[in-house]
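Quarterly update from the structural biology core.
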Amino acid sequence: MIEGHGDDIFKYEGIRLNFSSNVYPKADISPLVEHLKEHLNSIKNYPEPSAKSLEEAIAAKLDISPENVLATAGATEAIYLIAQTLRSWQTFNVKYPAFSEYEDACRLYSYREDVLGNLMWLCNPCNPTGEVFEQSYIESLLQKHRYLIVDQSYEDYTNEPVMTPKEGIKRVNLIQIHSMTKKYAVPGLRLGYITAAVPVIRLLKGNTYPWRLSSIAIEAGKFLLSTQGAVRDMTEYLRQTQKLRFELNALEGLEAYPTKTNFVLCRLKEGKASDLKEFLAKEKGILIRDASNFRNLYAGHFRVASSTEQDNIELIEGIKEYLKK
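Predicted structure, tokenized:
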């Protein structure tokens, strides 16, 4: 799906508050910007063909071997690369609702959907529901499927336990996807990586091409690994998320579902989320994610990521005004 994702701010003018992306909206990336200014001349030369130095830095951070790491141009490249590499297994399944790219990538490479698919895709924490799956559920899926691909792009936006790469690489049929652009709030850079057992990483690398990551992206990735991340106090941020959910649920005509991460899936009891989105964008300069195009969701579903307390109040007031209409 090329269109229809969140953070489509390019479609609107005058957006002041962006709740449509699951990336923390108030991150200070100025240290990264200053660092990259010193490395702009690197664009005069080709980057490393395989981003080896970044993979080594990631591995050192995770305390695993570089042979267990494959750097990617964001989680999306990882998804399509996995589908391409494992296409001989022919069948797939997805835990829905979920990011559409799992299904789209498999369809592109002529997989058939089957409840016992050889490839099982799981988003954990789950976009768009905010659910975090227990380890016992992960282990049960590993027993049922030839490969389990767990997209952990939002692992840094929850305090719930998720499987670490050091644990994951011990499972020969587990592939974990990680997003640096989520953790460090730089989605425009397209940075991510895959961790898996060595034979799986070797298979995936067999389908990569040279210079997939730019020299700027590689340099940014190495710098970001030395920093804490976008959110300084995750406990407080998640507390604000729960407060936002409570206040959304207090609005008549709206339901906000439980979440264990920084975003909240909601449902209008009447009307379309697309109408709410247009009202907020054009009348209030506020952008939300119309979630009606997630499989198993409906016209009234939308998703918002928590921001600061004051921003969250503005969102609540905007939705309240729409509901009164």
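The chain has two domains: 9-27+232-324, 30-224.
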